[in-house]
Structure formats: C-alpha cells, structure tokens
C-alpha cells in the first residue's frame, strides 16, 4: 500500500492532493502541461444551471502574500459541463469532484441531481460560500440553519457523497460545520476565500470591478489552519483542507491541524506544476521522516494518536 | 509547447524613463514561433509578489536562444524585475497565448503597426517578420512624452516611423490617431497593441479592411484556466459569449471582442 | 492649517497617525527612539482592572506577510496604569486613547469609569474583540446585542468619548457597527486581529502556547479595507482604521475606503521608526499630489465628494 | 543607545554545517559596550519575512567598527541571511537588552563559561573581556555532533576548553554537565547561554555561588513594548511578576527567572 493512498467517502485517491475548484478550470489547460493522471482528484470549476459570464473585469488583484478574485462563478452551465467537460475529463484515471453552485435552493438541487448522476462524478462539493455573487451564496454560507437545510435538500437527490465547502467569513465555524453535518453532509472542504478588497490609488476606486473579492493564498493559511483545527475536533466528518498551500510543509501543517486530504488553489497560478511537484515531495517527506502513511498525521496537533478516521487500509 | 524554465539574464538596460529592456537566454526560446505572444514571469523566488507578470515578447533570437522584453518598472513586481542583473535567473512560463498572424499580410502589401506606450514592444518582432516576408511596414508609435519614448530608431530601420506624444515633446502632439490623420497614412492591414482607448479609436477609424489588436487584462493563471481575463465578444445577444485574453488572445481580429 | 490636523470626537490630532494598542506598550520604550510628541495620538496597551500576566510563551509566531500573537492582555492593572503610566505619558503633548478590556460587563464599566476620569485620557477604545483571552472577549465582539449593551453601559460612566474596536471575526461587520452605534459609541476602531493558528512541524503542536492567536500585518489588509469600506457607508461614526498598514500608500488606501485616521500596529516591530516616518511621508504625499487636506480622501472610493464628516476646519 | 542602521556585510563564512559567521560594519558598533547583548535583524527589505530576527553579538571590534555574529541557518529568515555577500546591506536594530556583567567577576577569579549550540557565540566576546580583566576562563561547549561544532580553537586560545557532543563525535559524549562532572570543573562564577534544559541542569548543579544565564524567547518588538517575550520570576506568589527577555534580559542572574 502506498503512503499516500487515501479513502474518503465516494473517493479512492492515489494521493490526497488535488487542485481546488476555480483554479484549474475543467482540467483542459493543465492537461497540456502534465498528465492529469498523477492527481489525487480534480475539483472542477463551480457549475450552475445556466451558463454564466460572471463579473466584469478586472477580476483579480494582488495583495500581500495573497490575491483577490471576483470571477463570479463564470461557467458554461450544467448542460455543457455534462456533455462536454465531464466526458472529456473522464479520459483520465482521476476522480472528479463537481463543485455545485446556485442562487437558491432549487438551483443547487437541480444541478446536484443532474451532475451527481453523471458516471464521471465521484462526489459533489457544495459551494455555499462563494463571496462573489450578488444573490444567494452568502446566506447559505453564514447562517447555520440555512446551510443545514440546503445540505439536506441536496443530499436527498445526490447519487454521490456530498462535501460542503465552508466559508471562513463567519463568527463561528464549528457551528456551521455541525449544522451541515446535521444536514447529512458526507465531508467538509475548507476554507473558501475571505472577503477582501483593494483600492487603486491612481483611480481611487476598488481594483476589482465587483469591488470586493475573495482573498486566497498564503496570507489566509493561518485562518484555514485554525478553522480546521477547531472543526476537526468537533465533527466526525472528513476534511479536505485548503487555503494558501504552496509547500509540502504547508500540507503537513494542514494534516496536523486535522485535514484528511488537501486542495491547492492559488499556488497553481504561481507555479502551474505545483500539484505534481507536491505529490512527489510529499511522498519523499514521509519516507524521509519514516511516516508509514500520511493519515497518521491527521489531527496530531490535538490528539496524540491522530484522528485516523479515514485511514486507507 | 508551453514550458517553465529558469532563464538567465543576458542583459538589462534602462532605455527610457522607467523603461527597461531585458534579454533572457534559455531553451524556451525555441518554442517562440510567433510575434505578439507573451511570457508570464515570476520575478522573485519568494512568496511575494505572489502572481506572475505577463510581458510581451519583443524580439526573438533563436540562434542564440535569446529573447528580449521591454517593460515599464512601475509596481512591486516590475520594480523587482528591474533589479535583475546579467547572470541572475528568472522563472519564465511561456510562450503563452496567440500572437499576431503574419500570414494575414501578403507580400507586397502595406501593414500599419500602431503601438501605444508599453504596447509598442511586441510590434518590433512583428515588424521584422513582416519585412522578412516582403510586407512594407509603417509604424506609428504613441507615448506620453519624449522621456518615456523608446525604439523609434529601431523601428525606423524597418520602415517609415511616426511618433506622437501627448505633450508634443516628440513628433506629432496628440495621439496616434492624430499622427495617422496628419500624415494620411494608409495600408492594407492594421496591427495594433496599446491601451483600450487607443484600440477603440483605431476601430472607429476603419483605416484598413483587416486588423488585429492585442489586449491587456489582469491575469491569474495566464493559461486559460481561471477565467480572470475574459472579455465579451461583439454582437453577442446572450451576453455569455467570451474570449480569454490569455489563451484565446491576447491578439484578436478587429471586431471580434468588445472593447 | 496643516494638511494633517484632524479632529475626531474628543481628539484634536496634529496628524492622523497613531500606534495601535498593544504594539507600543505605554510608550516608554519608543520614547527612547524618538520624541513621542510627533505622534497624532497613542493607543495604550489594553488595561484591565487587575494586573494580568497573560498567556504562556511562545506568544508570537510569524506567518506569510503577517504574524500571530496571543499576549493575553498582559498589563499592570488599572491602578498602576493610573498612577504610573498615564502621568508619565502626560509629559508628552500627545492625546492618549486608553484601550479598555475585561471579562464581563462590570469589569469594562469599572475600568472605563476610572480611566476616563484621568485628566490624561482623551478617549477610550473599547476592546470587545480580543481573541486571546478565555472568557468574555469573543461574545462581546461577535454578538450585536451583547456589544450594544456593553457600549451603552460604558457610555453611561465614561467621561470621554468612546471608540469601539471591532473584531473582523464576524459574519456581518455592518451589523456589529450599527449595534455599537445604537449603543452610543462615538467612533469605531477597526480592525482587530483575525483568529489564526500555526503548527510547528518539529513538535507537531501549535507554535503559540495559547494554540490560537490574532493575525495581524499586511496579510489582513484586504480584509480591513473591505470592512471599512462597508462600515463607513452604513454608519455615521468616524473610523480609525488599522490592519496591515506599513506604507503611506496603505494609509491612502484606508482613507479611500473610509477611514478618518489610522493606527499602526505590527509595522512598529519591523521598523520601530515607522510612525514618525509615515507622518513625514504622508505630508509629502499630500503635497506632491496637491491634496489640501487628508480628510478629502475619506470614503472617496465610494463617494465622489468623499465622506468629509470629520473635517478639521 | 539603540540605533537602526543599514550595515554593510564585510564577510560571511560557513564555519560548520548550517552555521555561519557574519561580520558587519557600521557606526552602530560604537554603541556596543557589553557582551551578551543582541541585535534585531530585518533580513530582507521586502515585506517577508515580516519580523526581525534576534541574534547575539559574538565579537566586537570597535576600532574597525565591525562586529561578528554566528548563527544557524534554519528557517526562512536565517536562510535568507546566509545568502548575503560582502558588500550587501543588512538592516540592524541594536544593541538590545542587557548582557553579561563582566564586573561581577574579580581579577584573579575563575569564570566557567558554558554554551550550548547557538548559545555559544555571545560567550566569545565575554571570554575576551574577562581575560582582559585578568579573570581566568574555563569554557564548556556543548553541541549535537562534531559537524555543527565551531569556535573550539578560538575559545582554547582564551582558556581551558572542553567540548561535549550528544553523539560523542567530539569530546565528552553527552551534555555539558557530563563534561563538567568528568573533569570536575570548578570556578567562582558561571556564565551560560543555551537551551533551557541545559540552563536548568546547570542551576541544579549549583556549581558556583554566582551565575548569569542568557535566555531565548520568540520576540515581536525586541525593545520591551509588546510583551511577547516575558517569563515568570522565581518565588512569585502572585504569578503576575515577570521579566522581559528582550529588555530586562536576555541575561539574568541565576535564580531570578523561572526556567
Ligand atoms: C498580454 C500582456 C502583455 C503585456 N506586455 C507588456 C510589455 O511588453 N511591457 C510592459 O511594460 N507591460 C506589459 N504588460 C503589462 C504588464 O503586465 C503590467 O504592467 C505588469 O503586470 C504590472 O506589474 P507591476 O508589478 O508593475 O504592478 P503591480 O501593481 O504590482 O501589479 C499587481 C497585479 O496587477 C497586475 N497588473 C497591473 N497592471 C496591469 C496591466 N496593465 N495589465 C495586466 N496586469 C496588470 C499585475 O500583473 C499583478 O498581478 C502586458 C500585459 C498583458 C496582459
Ligand atoms: C536574545 C537572542 C539571541 C539569539 N542569538 C542567536 C545567535 O547568536 N545565533 C543563532 O543562531 N541564534 C540565535 N538566537 C535564535 C534565533 O533568533 C533564531 O534561531 C532565529 O530567530 C530563527 O529564525 P529563522 O528565520 O531561522 O526561523 P523561522 O522559523 O523562520 O522564524 C520564525 C519566527 O520565529 C522566531 N524564532 C524561531 N526560532 C526562534 C528561537 N530559537 N528563538 C527566538 N525566536 C525564534 C523568529 O525570530 C521568527 O520571528 C537568539 C535568540 C534570542 C532570543
Ligand atoms: C480565481 C479563483 C476562483 C475560484 N473559484 C471557485 C469556485 O468556482 N468554487 C469554489 O468553491 N471555490 C472557488 N475558489 C476558491 C478556491 O477553491 C479555494 O477554496 C481558495 O482559493 C483557498 O485556497 P488557496 O489559498 O489555495 O487558493 C476560487 C479561488 C480562486 C483564487
Ligand atoms: C502583539 C500585539 C498585541 C496587541 N494587543 C492589543 C491590545 O492589547 N488591545 C487591542 O485592542 N488590540 C491589540 N492588538 C491589535 C492591534 O491593535 C491591531 O488592531 C491589529 O494588530 C491590526 O493592526 P496591524 O496589522 O497594523 O498590527 C495587538 C496586536 C499585536 C500584534
Ligand atoms: S488568466 Fe486565467 S484564464 Fe486567463
Ligand atoms: S519582544 Fe516585545 S517585549 Fe520583548
């Protein structure tokens, strides 16, 4: 058995490293750079029922050790994703996690029902935390009852396990995690971006056309670590951790905090080869440190024996 | 093919106020086959600045595996780039995007190349290739003022060259369109790169039947994956059509994208 | 009139730049480096009724473009602050803003009553947002009704204007701001630190003995800007902005977002001369950009005419 | 007086595995009047790494306005510091804190100087000053292993020198306390710097009547303003007594602070 193989609800992963949603499109571009088969999984760009153009540009801005984005869930819509993107991606031997978004419960349910029926999709990631769309989004991600209700509705129709993606823009992350656990979530992915803004000194106006955007990258890593540390002790759900990962040390830190797998977002932009590089380095790190299996590290910062809930046996 | 390489600085020169000419060497140059494409640079091995910077390829020298960029040192990233000295390494991803189609101009035809500010650089490689093919080139270069102007002489070696400056300190006082009108410039095909206002003015001018313009947009990935750099297409009733500047562009046929 | 002179409730400032609470002690150490008279004001370290030792060490950790701290409100207690620190600081011609903390309403009220009676204190800063103490702190900063009630109680006894310091660890910052405005606050200071954590790979344990700590520095600037942008449009209170300021450009960005003055925290550690340097550079910047008065910039990112509520006439 | 200065690198040398000896030049050296004080370094002009790094002063050369530090390149900051070359500039704040009191040792007495790992460096300046004063010095230096050991010869020039390594690859196998016992070392006053476990063991040993130890703690400001680096005092029933390592220390009389 490999040191990296990881089993999570619905997912058997060669390794626990995957690109985060929105930072990898539907895989086409990166497939020109390396063989996608090496990846643990792929979290595809958020899919909504109808095609969306998203927000006006500029959509990104740089910040100290981070970046802001306000893409606004641009995507070709459910139909094209089903017909074009998923079949194309299925040529690779890599699990697909479909990121599902919407403006109201019905949208989420509709997309979840259809896309979870695709033979190419192994799990859903419920995006209840996108800060960059006018309607919906925010309340689903910040009000526990609303999040729980949405999770339940989606679980009723989904044919694959449902991971709920938590927003860090809340007073109490544990409350949110417990609410979606109550709602029947099979796992958590965290964290989405922190709401932020930058102003252009030349124009005096926000750099992003959408004004505010989501902060990602190394700057937010301490917030992600703290939230995973808290949530992993209070729920039984597996956690796919993300937020500022760019080195193998970061990955270890996420595991120690309580993650069962990790996703890489922004770092794909600074180094498009980051995922295969980290997969290799993680294996080497474990070997050099005589760790038999990566899951042994999960939760070690708060539990002597680690969490070990999702061990690959 | 897109590659990522630590390339070596051959030379770095300050050629006008805050304007630098940087020549790098490495294998990646063998992939550079078209004028108007760009590279995406990580200017520091550290975390900050986090994002890569898109810079056009201004001159390709495949024999020596070298290429040249010209850029303005303005923000955090380009200022750090300007500190690189011969022998230093730079992390280059490229070549990216689609460039200016040289084949759209026929031997014997006249091409008008219009550049504004730091939109001028990619036109230099383009002009050389057009001239090699026997296409006559006319160059119109617009700058804020004389102190930030560059490469006028180099372009002049390749064909008629007109300069416009906003403050009139060099050439025609005003914009590139003023110079075009003043000298009644005409040609078969237009190639342009510069600020959107300039591109829009050129589109309205309808100087040639055919034209190609190069756009700028803030980028995330630079390879088409993140949807940071999209623009609308013209005549799109649904409003959901788009092009990605980084991978569909940065060069588009005039009339294709909404400016 | 100087370009920098600023009037805020209770405060007439030579310039709008002051050290943030907790990053400047009670001024003694920095007084060895430069003349404190140059400062716009001084926000002194949080004062509690009884002396506090604070948390065990390590109390600080570095993060990408930021730092975590879990000092735990160490301070010599109200009596010593009244007897020793305030009289000492009063030798300088610089307004003192006293940062007030506690574990329950009564503590805050007691400290506020006494310290606001000092002839040396021009305003209070109500620290309802310290993430680093076990009791109190957090609820005051995250539940609007609790914050409002506390503000009211403190206002009843305070002899000087009361600024409330908002925590960024909330789902809805505008709601919090409005609550304390309803409670009678005279102004806002924002933001305090984001809750974060770092784990030491060698030990597998959190670096901070307190486990979690407050994230400050450039990393959090986009969050601060966003919150000030939102709050300044929705309340009439003046805002002293802080969070990651280290350059004059940062200060301008805070003003454009909606700040009426600014405070410098973490940057005092990387460069202990930062405050006097920024005061000089800000004046030069305004002069070079032909801006008659710094207050013209307040809120310019969302209002053509700026906010101009707290103009120095 | 505390000053901040961009000092110039005179030399940087790798003297043991990951151990560097760095000499800087500048006016600030004239303020250095006591062994055991430290400087606070900003290793980069960029935002990251954000915090300064505290490093002890190992040797002071006021005639040439130079001082030397010895440090282990381990984390982000010290690794960047290790890249500095002669002629580069480093942002130094210092000298900070209170050092080892040379006056507590009388001419003719014997001082035992015990250093562990990167706690060894400040003892070098101390030993020179003690010897100048006519105090006999005995040095006990503890390291993990031979490959990270340094300055044994330099200390030997100043007095008897014993080395202990955990793996026995050099000198006594074990800890400094093992070497002290093995050679039955005795003296009038103890000066020590190193890991807390070592300091604690020394305190228990009660080798001398008088002793001074130097502590390490993670720091924010380095000047006493932020309360990051406090430690408890011994025999403090209230639990609210404290000392700041950066400004009250890093050197404390043995028995003053809780280890
Ligand atoms: C396809 C393309 C080709 C380009 N070619 C050149 C060239 O040949 N010479 C040249 O001088 N400039 C060129 N630019 C513009 C250049 O990318 C920006 O000037 C540069 O990124 C600014 O970085 P900075 O570090 O100076 O500024 P910062 O303000 O530090 O940049 C912050 C962020 O904003 C982005 N950004 C800021 N301004 C621009 C801009 N105008 N366009 C795109 N992104 C921006 C940066 O890339 C970075 O992500 C080109 C842009 C594009 C899209
Ligand atoms: C008074 C004093 C004197 C010192 N003298 C020396 C010396 O002469 N030679 C030497 O090699 N080391 C010395 N140290 C330890 C040195 O400060 C740390 O090794 C160094 O700060 C680590 O920085 P980094 O960039 O390698 O690690 P990073 O892990 O990148 O550091 C991250 C943060 O943690 C802090 N930190 C990490 N380890 C320590 C530590 N052991 N002590 C204090 N802060 C730490 C850093 O200062 C920084 O703020 C001294 C420490 C103190 C307090
Ligand atoms: C450009 C961009 C687009 C994103 N789009 C999505 C999205 O469509 N759906 C989603 O759930 N998260 C999206 N995210 C959030 C990331 O998946 C991830 O949660 C976040 O960026 C933190 O990870 P990082 O710091 O590694 O980037 C996006 C992030 C970025 C930077
Ligand atoms: C070491 C440290 C101690 C602090 N102590 C206090 C405090 O006692 N009271 C308070 O209201 N804020 C305290 N703060 C928060 C700062 O005043 C400020 O709100 C925050 O650090 C954001 O600003 P900055 O990024 O400029 O540091 C502390 C911050 C730091 C870094
Ligand atoms: S920059 Fe990412 S799609 Fe163009
Ligand atoms: S480091 Fe700030 S008080 Fe010691």
Automatic annotation (TrEMBL), chains A, C:
It holds the Pfam family DHO_dh. Residues 4-286 form the Dihydroorotate dehydrogenase catalytic domain. It comes from Pseudobacillus wudalianchiensis. Heterotetramer of 2 PyrK and 2 PyrD type B subunits. The keyword Membrane does not apply. It is an enzyme of class 1 (oxidoreductase). GO terms for cellular component: cytoplasm. It is found in: Cytoplasm. The keyword Amino-acid biosynthesis does not apply. NCBIfam families: PRK07259.1, pyrD_sub1_fam. Binds 1 FMN per subunit. This is Dihydroorotate dehydrogenase. FMN binds at residues 21, 45-46, 99, 127, 165, 191, 217, 243-244, 265-266. The gene is pyrD. HAMAP family: DHO_dh_type1 (MF_00224). The active site is at residue 130. It catalyses: (S)-dihydroorotate + NAD(+) = orotate + NADH + H(+); (S)-dihydroorotate + A = orotate + AH2. Catalyzes the conversion of dihydroorotate to orotate with NAD(+) as electron acceptor. One of its GO terms (molecular function) is dihydroorotate dehydrogenase (NAD+) activity. Its EC number is 1.3.-.-. Belongs to the dihydroorotate dehydrogenase family. Type 1 subfamily.
TrEMBL record, chains B, D:
It comes from the Bacteria. Keywords: 2Fe-2S, Electron transport, FAD, Flavoprotein, Iron, Iron-sulfur, Metal-binding, Pyrimidine biosynthesis, Transport. This is Dihydroorotate dehydrogenase B (NAD(+)), electron transfer subunit. NCBIfam families: PRK00054.1-2, PRK00054.1-4. Residues 2-102 form the FAD-binding FR-type domain. PROSITE patterns: FAD_FR. It comes from Pseudobacillus wudalianchiensis. The gene is pyrK. Binds 1 [2Fe-2S] cluster per subunit. Binds 1 FAD per subunit. Its cofactor is [2Fe-2S] cluster; FAD.
